[in-house]
């Protein structure tokens, strides 16, 4: 399929997966101890979400991401300072990031800074990562060390690793030094999902194999003001719900994929193979996998110009100037998804029995 025909097909079909989406279930999940993680643009999104919603989030796992508001709304800074820093084009210092966070908190655009200070974070940098260079992760580590207790931070450096999620769950994972689709690598026995969840949540039961639970395809559109495509969000997202979580009380973890790693690009490789589901099944964790979609300017049925050709999460401002705050379109959408998971299940309404001689219409 040519680029043009693929783009046209995506527009006509609204980039759906071919599986009927259902409403995101209300599971009475615990939403006062949410954790988040992500890789690449998803790593930046996880940091962004953690800082903006610090009253909700209690920990973050970051693979190949960088400091909060690193790009400052600039594509040039995103590509330079925040991915391949050199010379004077460097990531922000801890003091600069802390100043930004405090100013936004005082203005009421993000949650109070004090809520961030009892979080836990887990970081992973690959020595062969040529997309987000190691100094960017070093800058993120420096910000957290200026903010959190030392024992709250774990920073793993895998010298051989390329730009990828490191997983033992994907049977077709790329070799460790690789930096190409689906951006899931096998580096010996490094299980990034398991390591980050254990650091963020404490000792866990071993992962279940196979995971006992259901991968739900849900409709993301109700969580977006306007059209999902105008926030560069796909119509459909995923949620792994362990069998034990239907009764309520489970924790929530949000896993943000990276650029070119959404379901429209690699199918279910990330949601099935990143490594979260086995741990979630044996430890009563609902894993939310929100999904982006590519945008090439205008889209079918939309007159809004939006440029996101690799389906990245918005960490440089393509959705608008509020992208990094509680008012960001993608931020609000994911927050609303978490709120829904925390709601009590809707009661099942039984049909009224028919009386003899009556007619149901």
Characterization of the model:
This protein is an alpha/beta fold and 361 residues long. The chain has one domain (23-342). 26% of the residues lie in helices and 19% in strands. It contains 10 helices and 13 strands. It has helices at 3-13, 41-52, 75-79, 94-106, 134-145, 192-201, 263-266, 269-273, 276-283, 329-342; strands at 34-39, 57-63, 120-126, 153-158, 165-166, 174-175, 184-186, 213-219, 236-242, 251-256, 285-289, 295-299, 302-308. It has an 8-stranded mixed β-sheet with strand order 4-3-2-1-10-11-9-8, sandwiched between helices. β3 (120-126), α5 and β4 form a beta-alpha-beta unit. α4 crosses α5. The longest helix is centred in the last third of the chain and has 14 residues, at 329-342. The radius of gyration is 20 Å and the shape is globular. The protein starts with a helix and ends in a 19-residue tail after the last helix.
Main sheet?
8 strands, mixed
Order of helical and strand elements: HEHEHHEHEEEEHEEEHHHEEEH
Principal-axis shape: globular
Number of strand elements: 13
Over all CA atoms, what is the radius of gyration? 20 Å
Structural class: alpha/beta
Low-pLDDT parts are 1-18, 352-361
Number of domains: 1
Spatial arrangement of strands, main beta sheet: 4-3-2-1-10-11-9-8
Mean pLDDT reading: 92
Q: Count helical runs.
A: 10
CA distance, first residue to last residue: 49 Å
Report helical residue fraction.
25-40%
Percent in strands: 15-25%
